[in-house]
Amino acid sequence: MSATLDLATLDVYDPEQYVAGVPHEKFAFLRAHDPVFWQRLPDGGGCWIVAKHADVIAASADPATFSAERGGIVIEDMPPERLAQMRGQLLAMDPPRHRDMRRKVLVGFTPGLVGRMEPFLRERARAVMDAAAARGRVNFVYDMAAALPLQVICEIFGIPEADRAWVVEAGDRVIGRDDPDLGANEDSGESSVKIGAYGFQLASERTAKGGDDLISLLVNAPGGNAISAVEFANLFIQLIVAGNETTRTLLTGTLLALLEDPDAYRALEADPGLLPVAVEEMLRWTTPVHYFRRTATRDAELGGKKIREGDRVVLHYTSADFDESVFAEPLRFDIRRDPNPHLAFGWGEHFCLGAKLARMEARIFWEEFFRSFAAVELTGPVRRMRSNLNNSHKEIPVRLRPR
Ligand code: HEM
User: What are the helix and strand counts (H, E) for the chain?
Assistant: First the structure.
């Protein structure tokens, strides 16, 4: 490995390389030789790639030093108006503003509310399986994996049926900013503005009215806890993107892992009781969001490196999730791995609000999948998204054999 890799030229930024797959070999090299690595960037600057599990946790635990708000959460610096818009999203807020807003949003994600989604999820998962069974040959990404997360988000928010397809398409454009098929030539900011405007409209319509969808709960919360239509619009952008695309990636990456590991496939098929533990390995293996960025608010030290105020610091969840000092044989997909302290949902202050929901979606999706199909096979090449941020797929053509 080290014969061909060289720290002076190593590049984990270029989105093009991710079309072929995650460059695990490069991250392993970084963890071994330079775990907090200065990555030079095409914009002439650079960023720190934080490659080890312990360092990602250390930085996540210190939001006062490693700010999500100061420079946003993606590597590329944004124009001021985009950054201002982004700072309306929970993910790009720092405490104390973040804690206040997160507390208000939590009302929609209590275990009770999430648990109540189960019958709805199961019914929708069955409908997805039935539709795929009727067709026999499908693009697993859009015809199966995308369908469930979208419906859950739309259900939570009470989005009218007629608007649902449009919403997911716009969400795709926001995340596909480096991918030519998904609107890299357009301003992905434009799509987020459209999603935000739509969210604003829904929130305004539901203010001061009854209703038990999440929008109504948030904008009409009593005791000074209500969020405004503008605040909701920002949150909405994030939830549409975060809730849809990540869960879809968890399902698509898992299908590929299972196709490569027939023993794991057969074991889960024979005993869905293994799923709760296996879902954690699916999350580790697919790590749908490769990284989120922080910006140093002061000079600091991380993993033995001197970080300067204003430096971009990249918390690399994918690299952390394959850190051999935490996970034995990290390149083995082990559905019985337990404990499994992966960082697919991040850590600490910003830990994913949708984690419980996403876990439940994955479990139910696979329970219904195995119940419906006796076999699945690839019928053509898999196409991955051109992105160093999202570990996503565009196309997984499969043939399904119903039971
Ligand atoms: C497999 C699916 C998912 C993955 C891998 C994922 C991943 C993440 C990650 C890495 C973070 C940032 C954590 C950090 O900075 O420490 C995050 C935050 C967040 N996620 Fe998820 N997510 C998923 C599903 C969802 C779903 C279904 C929803 C909502 C319905 C959701 C809503 C959020 C929100 C609101 C935040 C921001 C929390 C905050 O800043 O306080 N996510 N997610």
Answer: 15, 12
Q: What is the pLDDT of residues 251-301, one digit of tens each?
A: 999 999 999 999 999 999 999 999 999 999 999 999 999 999 999 999 999
Q: How far is the CA of 138 from the centre of ligand 1 (A)?
A: 28
CA distance 175 to 330: 27
Phi, psi angle pair for 312, to nearest 5°: -85, 135
The residue nearest atom 37 of ligand 1, judged by CA position, is 91
Q: 354 CB under 6 A from ligand 1? A: yes
What pairing do the DSSP bridges indicate for beta strands 46-50 and 312-316? Answer: parallel
Which has the closest alpha carbon to 88: 99, 78, 75, 101? 101
34: enclosing H helix or E strand: none
Tracing tokens 């999202």 back to the chain, one arrives at 390
Chain center to CA of 150: 13
The residue type at 289: V
Structure tokens at 219: 């904008």
Residue 352 CA to ligand 1 centre (angstroms): 3
Decide: residue 152, CB within 10 A, 0-12 exposed, 13-18 middle, 19+ buried: buried
d(Cα 370, Cα 402) in Å, to the nearest integer? 10
Per-residue model confidence as pLDDT tens digits over 56-66: 999 999 999 99
Answer whether 392's CB lies under 8 Å from 175's CB.
Answer: yes
102 C-beta closer than 6 A to ligand 1: yes
How many whole angstroms separate alpha carbon 70 and alpha carbon 48? 16
Tell me the C-alpha distance between 86 and 78, whole Å.
9
Token code pair at residue 227: 């969020």
pTM of the model: 0.95
Strands (E), 33-99: 36-40, 46-50, 66-67
CA 261 to chain CA centroid, nearest Å: 24
Strands 300-302 and 393-395: unpaired
CA nearest neighbour of 13 among 338, 314, 350, 374? 314
CA distances from 168 to 145, 237, 337 (A): 12, 11, 33
Q: Report which residue type is found at 268.
A: L
Q: Do residues 117 and 213 touch, judged by C-beta distance below 8 A? A: no
